[in-house]
Amino acid sequence: MHELIQVLCVDDEINILNVVRRQLDDEEFEVQTALTVEEGLQILAQKTPIHVVLSDFRMPGMNGVEFLQQVARVRPEAVGIVLSGFADIPAVRQALEKDALFSFIAKPWKASELRKAVMDAAALSNLRSREEGSLP
Amino acid sequence: MLEKNVRRQVLIPLTLTFVILITSFLYTSYRIRMDEYASGLTHRYHHVQNILESLIAGRTKSMMTAAEFIAGQKRFQWAMIAGDREALLQHASAIRERLVAGQQITHFNFYDTAGRNILRIYQPDDTSESSERFTKRQAMEKGTPVSGLELGRVGAFTLRLTYPWWVEGELIGYIEFGQEIDHILQELKEITEIDFLISLDKSHLERDAWEEGMRILGRRADWDFLPDKVVIDQTISMPASVAAGLIASRTIDQESGSVFEFDKRSYRARSFPLYDAARRSVGEFILLKDITKEVSSFRSFLTRVVPFSLVLSATLFAFAFRVLGRVDRRLVQVQESLSREFEKQADTNQKLETEIAERRRAEEKLIVLNESLEQRVLERTSELKALNAEIEASRAALEEAYRDLQIQQATILQQDKMACIGQLAAGVAHDINNPIGFVAGNLEVIQKYWDRTGEFLKIQSDALNVCAPPELLEHVEQSRGRLKIDHVAGEFPAVMAECLDGAERVTKIVLNLKGFSRIDEEGARIADIHECLESTIGIVSNELRYKASLVRRYGEISPLYCCPQQLNQVFMNLLINAAQAIDRWGEITIRTWAERQKVFISIGDTGCGIPEEHLSNIFEPFYTTKKAGGGTGLGLSIVYDIIKQHGGAISVESTPGKGTLFTIELPLQAQEARSA
């Protein structure tokens, strides 16, 4: 793989961020983390590409789906995955139905599950980027 | 009216009584007199007869003596035997004077042995045969002397004796004596001073002879004096008419005789039949008694007694009349007062009757009233009954509603509780899922790191083995031994597995909690019963773990349209009950199967069982056998309610001491109104 998959992970729990970083600490992935939505948005505002956005659902200030909807406006090529506690599933399901996010992963999750989901999301992100690039 | 009646009623019988008394008195007196006369007459007759008999006996005896005397005289015997009439006449004439003078023996005859006349002493010239006589015939037949009175053709009674003359055992003839009865009668009259009359039947007499005889006796002879009789002797001369009446009288031969009067004197007469020696009734001997004195004394008795009796009766009558008058007056008074009383009584009776009639009318009215009252009471009663029934029905409905309300309230409470548990579970799950998330994640990272480290260590160890000096290798080996690196390497996968297993289990618990509360779901949906069962088992596993081993016998069943949350509650209640029924250790068996478009779930335990008397009540709300505070008594009623809402049924079988089996059946066909 010539290009690293750029992953942004937003969670108010630092341990989650660390685990995700460690699980995706491979040659294909480059993981940036943010403890808050604002921090995540700042990272997205930078010119560096972000292919996949992993977001917690329940966060102070804004929930994961809302956040990902904002992300879609800022970075349409970025594909969102919700890393969710099960209590939030109906809202997540609604978001899935609106294509606001690619998939969701229930906590606790398996590393392989996470890797697969991120890889798939990255593939979709690449597809979107190519479409974008060909259009304008 | 009354007065007359009383007097008549008393006085007439009284008078009759007097009359009867006096009459009977007089009659009795008369009868007594008559009896006296009768007995007197009878007595006199007997007296006369006795005297007559003794007179006749005396005469007979003297004639007998004379006959015996003559018969004993040899001269007579000789004369008789010789048949010498002259000698006999001579001898007899010598005795004849004495016989006539002394004995009045006027007849003196001799007969031969054949009874032929030999000699009549009085008429020696008359040798004609004398008439056939009874005494002679008897004497000839018997051979003994026979005597008796005999009526002669002249109408005179003669006492005769015929004496058979026996000389030395040989009959030589008969001696006959006779004398007229007149003498005897004259003698009798002198002795008895009794008047009599002797009459003879004409049939025994010859008129000429009789008249001749009577003339000889110097008596009046009147052949035509009486039609069929002649009077031969009488002590009182009486007219023929009187004598005829007397003899013809019917009562003359009766005991009291007959009474007749002539010549201003009264006589009582009684006739007795007159028999001759042959016992023929030849006439009558009529006894006469002068009763002039007695009659006059009886008459004077009557003249004294009758007026006295009449006066006495009259006095008594008058007395009775007066007394009765007073009684009458009193009776009238009493009657009047009685009638007044009666009128009053009648008045009262009238009033009473009126009153009774009124009462009867009142009673009838009452009866009618009663009937209508009863009718009304009946109507009211039925109305009341209907009302009662309504009230009872509404009460039952109210009770039903109340019970429903209670059940609903209990259900709501239970659901609230479940919702709370769900929310709590959701919160807990979220809170737990984050740490579990990074714990599990980190464990995977550690695993990955360990793999990498091991790989590197292997490379390092291979490198060392290739180029390291032996002492260094030995040091490494020693360090490896001291640090038990091989052991660590051997143990590490197990450690990791155990940690992952723990994380996994926590994850599962949270999942179950989530699945049980279904906080993320609402209403009915298609659900897998086995999933429901499993999530419930996960929740209650702590309750079960130390009580029973759980046996699952799941059959092939298709997913069901239901409210999983509610069914979970059903399963939880049944499982917890089963665990509580087991005292120390037992078995809980869950079976599922499908049959005839139905899904069956049975939960059985090997617990203490339910006594039969409780079995019918266990689904009732608030029915509990647990200690106070031990249970709400709602668990099974909620179960029942939920199953019913699902259109299913629940049944229970239990054997005390052996265990209990609950069987739920749910219809496979989706039905509406499942949502709760």
Summary of the model, kept short:
The complex is a heterodimer of chains A (about 140) and B (about 675). Chain A is α/β, with parallel strands linked by helices and about 140 residues long.
Question: Residue-averaged pLDDT of chain A, rounded?
Answer: 83
Structural class per helix/strand content of chain A? alpha/beta
What's the CATH topology name of the domain at 1-178 in chain B? Answer: Beta-Lactamase
For the record, the CATH architecture of chain A stands as 3-Layer(aba) Sandwich
CA-based shape of chain A: globular
Characteristic terms for this protein:
heterodimer, A: 136 residues, alpha/beta, Rossmann fold, B: 676 residues, alpha+beta, Beta-Lactamase, Heat Shock Protein 90, five-stranded antiparallel sheet, 14 helices, rod-shaped, disordered C terminus
Structure characterization notes:
- The complex is a heterodimer of chains A (136) and B (676).
- By secondary structure, chain A is of the alpha/beta class.
- Chain A has one domain: Response regulator (Rossmann fold).
- Chain A has 5 helices and 5 strands, in the order E-H-E-H-E-H-E-H-E-H.
- Chain A has a 5-stranded parallel β-sheet, with helices on both faces.
- The longest helix of chain A is centred in the C-terminal third of the chain and has 24 residues, at 111-134.
- The mean pLDDT of chain A is 83.
- With 676 residues, chain B is an alpha+beta fold.
- Chain B has helices at residues 2-72, 74-82, 85-103, 134-142, 181-192, 207-217, 240-248, 292-467, 470-482, 485-517, 529-545, 564-581, 612-615, 635-645; strands at residues 107-111, 117-120, 146-151, 157-167, 170-180, 195-201, 229-234, 258-262, 265-275, 281-290, 525-527, 548-553, 560-562, 586-595, 598-605, 649-655, 659-667.
- In chain B, helix 1 (2-72) packs across helix 5 (181-192), helix 8 (292-467) runs antiparallel to helix 10 and helix 10 (485-517) crosses helix 11.
- Chain B is rod-shaped and about 260 Å long.
- Chains A and B meet through helix 1 of A and helix 8 and helix 10 of B.
